[in-house]
Amino acid sequence: MAQDVKCEVDSCHYWGKGNKCNAEQILVNYKDSISGGSDVEFGMMGNKKSTDSTCCETFRPKKS
């Protein structure tokens, strides 16, 4: 399990109590093809419903 990784994306399968990520491995991938920069506000990523909106390739939606 990932250690000391906090995440507020409560719609993710790996989200746990206390905002702890319960995934064994985590891949965060940020690509800015428009400006070529790497300045990003991860706290402002939209509705948190997909990998694209979280920058987390590990994201998997919770089953309803």
User: Into how many domains do the coordinates divide?
Assistant: 1
- In angstroms, what is the radius of gyration? 12 Å
| Low-pLDDT residue spans | none
Q: How far is it from the N-terminal to the C-terminal residue, by CA?
A: 24 Å
Instruction: Please state the average pLDDT score.
Output: 74
Structural class: little secondary structure
Roughly how much helix do the residues carry, as a percent range? Answer: under 10%
Task: Walk me through what this model shows.
- This protein is mostly loops and 64 residues long.
- Strands 1-2 form a two-stranded antiparallel ribbon.
- It contains 1 helix and 2 strands.
- The protein has one helix spanning 51-54, and strands at residues 15-16, 20-21.
- The protein has one domain (1-31, 45-64).
- A hairpin with a 3-residue loop joins strand 1 and strand 2 (20-21).
- The mean pLDDT is 74.
- It starts with 14 loop residues before the first strand and ends in a 10-residue tail after the last helix.
Q: What are the defining features of this structure?
A:
6% helix, 64 residues
Summarize the structure in short.
By secondary structure, the chain is mostly loops. 6% of the residues lie in helices and 6% in strands.
Blueprint of the fold:
Layout (H helix, E strand, L loop, with lengths): L14 E2 L3 E2 L29 H4 L10
Antiparallel strand pairs: 1-2
